[in-house]
Amino acid sequence: MSTAYEVNFDGLIGPSHNYGGMSHGNLASSKNEGDVSNPREAALQGLEKMRLLHRAGLKQGILPPLPRPNFDLLASAGFGGSDAAMIEAAAQQAPALLKAAYSASAMWAANAATVSPSADAADGRLHLTSANLSTMLHRSIEHPDTTAALLSIFEREDMFAVHGALPPHADFSDEGAANHVRLCAEHGAPGVELFVYGREPGESTVGFPARQSLLASQSIARAHALSHDRTVFARQSTAAIDAGAFHNDVVCVGALETLFFHELAFEDTDGMLEQLRRAADGLFELKPVMVPEAEVPIGDAITSYLFNSQLLQMPGEDRLVLLAPLETQETDSTRNFCERMVAGNGPIGRVQYVDVRQSMRNGGGPACLRLRVVMTEVELASCHQDVLVSDEKIDALQAIVSETYRDRVVSADLADPAFADECRTAREQLLEELGLSSLA
Fold it and tell me: Which of 11, 152, 217, 358 lies at a CB distance of 3.0 to 4.6 Å from 42, suitable for a disulfide?
């Protein structure tokens, strides 16, 4: 078994970060629609989270922001002429479309792709499938640029298999790793992959949309050459979706042998756990940690983002660490539960709180901001090295952000062609620092 690491590739928050309120079913996004955002603060908060984990001894990478505004979207809608002309016309005739073109939602890298490590794949390669994010217009435009970025970072085809997005049809609706959990004894060992879906092909839903389809999850498992015996498909509960858990990672997170989840997360909790135990037989002993509805109402779990936290194996610590947003600490039920949990002898021994408020107000916690990629030492040495974090790299990126990002953005700013120029200039400088200028 090769030595392997869980590398967190965080999305670098882009200069067009704004509160557009475009994500139906995401309560925080809807609540803060139209508020003043601070892209500079948002990006600096994200970079400080990366620095925190890097200094703790974890491996950390960066995914660049995507080009915004997305002029391809505007052109597809019939707008033409110069960039400035397209922006001005869209602002007058289709302001909602212009908001979608400017969306910085790719910052939530947990939705960028689904990842299976080489230890799980029959062909011995690390597999990544870009998510089509077809449920929401503003996210459906991400995958071509996401795929290009992943191909630039994971270039070697003998080690890495980067798959394009699934067809953009409702039956193939795919939201990436936000609906996927890998469990294992240790990162370099074969594991069990849990795919969570909200609906089956052809099935319609009432209320908030069930974004992940069973067909999408099954298709990705096939493309990643996963063992049927080590793959589990479980349905997310309608109660969780209707309460605002638009992705499974709003009510569930896992790491190593531990699955940490809310009582209402799954349609059939007992059946899901039994499937996991059978799949894990001979590999590891599953350690489920279920949070009862009576102790943490699902509404509190969702608004505090207790589960949209990073569950981490910190060097030198015997038990896992939950990296949670400050909102979890500020909510009585979740704070009290965390205190009781770490006082016990379960697999989670510490909770650490982190400030990502700018992201949280748009509906994304610490877990949303990262894509977990399990990599062997050889794979880590073979990927694009300029996206791997060091203190110096973070310092350089923070300097660019401080110089080029605005500290205040409102919806009216999107109509200003000068803002588009600022976003392009900022991204080009960031790409140069990351050695990815070819993506400009």
Answer: 358
Give the separation between CA 259 and CA 169, rounded to whole angstroms: 31
CB of 12 within 8 A of CB of 64?
A: yes
368 is catalytic: yes
Active site residue 247: yes
- Model-level pTM greater than 0.90? yes
Choose the CATH number for 4-68+103-439 among 3.55.40.20, 3.75.10.20, 1.50.10.10, 1.20.120.80.
Answer: 3.75.10.20
Instruction: Give the pLDDT confidence score for residue 307 in this predicted structure.
Output: 96
Helix and strand counts by DSSP (H, E) for the chain = 17, 15
Tokens encoding 12: 């670098």
Q: Tokens in use for 74?
A: 């505007």
Per-domain boundaries in the chain: 4-68+103-439
Give residue 266's pLDDT.
97
Tens digit of each residue's pLDDT (9 = 90 or more) over 36-71 = 899 999 999 999 999 999 999 999 999 999 999 999
Q: Which of 6, 175, 193, 422 is labelled catalytic? A: 175
